[in-house]
Specification:
The complex is a heterodimer of chains A (116) and B (64). In chain A, 75% of the residues lie in helices and 0% in strands. With 116 residues, chain A is mostly helical. The chains are: A mainly alpha (116), B mainly alpha (64).
Chain lengths: 116, 64
């Protein structure tokens, strides 16, 4: 995720990046995509390794993250069409997902008594 | 689902962590099962039954 964040923001700050050829832009865009792939692969491996109760908590948190992202993506998309709202860059959806996922893990864990 | 896992664990003088190690699950899972907040899978229920040499029906009480 650090690679994703650094590359996403850093790409805009690379000196002369606006003069790069088109294929270089596509290649640079692949870097965060590969990082995202490995993050979800790691999450998949983690979900497989932990036991059933902890896996259920992870799944619930993932669903919370997905629901939030879908609501924001769909809702903001509608607002962009119908109202005069600024465009939301789609690369923000991944940090939003992981933020909601992390908070959901915390709240669900507290509710399920994990810290007792 | 009500269960008597805590009593059976106490008979063996095992901690939740120790029981979890025997069953291959975390202490938090054992805690959740004992508190009735989580119903184990059939696979885990059978493991418990084998460990304590009881039937599943002796563990769990179907409240329906």
């Amino acid at each position: 995720m650090l690679i994703y964040g650094a590359v996403t923001e850093g790409l805009a700050w690379v000196p002369g990046s606006s003069d790069f050829p088109a294929y270089a832009h596509y290649a640079l865009a692949l870097i965060p995509i590969v990082a995202i792939f490995f993050v979800f692969w790691a999450q998949w491996r983690f979900a497989i390794e932990i036991d059933e109760f902890l896996r259920l908590i992870q799944i619930k948190a993932t669903l919370c993250g997905i629901a939030c992202v879908m609501v924001i993506a769909s809702g903001w998309g509608q607002l962009e069409r119908l109202a005069d709202v600024p465009t939301l860059p789609m690369f923000w959806l991944l940090p939003i997902f992981w933020t909601v996922h992390g908070l959901a893990i915390l709240f669900i864990s507290i509710r399920e008594g994990l810290f007792q | 689902m009500k269960n008597n896992l805590k009593a059976l664990r106490a008979e063996q003088d095992w901690s939740q962590a120790t029981l979890g190690d025997h069953l291959g699950v975390s202490r938090q899972t054992i805690n959740a099962i004992e508190a009735g907040r989580y119903d184990p899978s059939l696979h885990l229920a059978f493991k418990m039954a084998r460990l304590f040499k009881r039937t599943i029906e002796e563990f769990f009480e179907d409240e329906d």
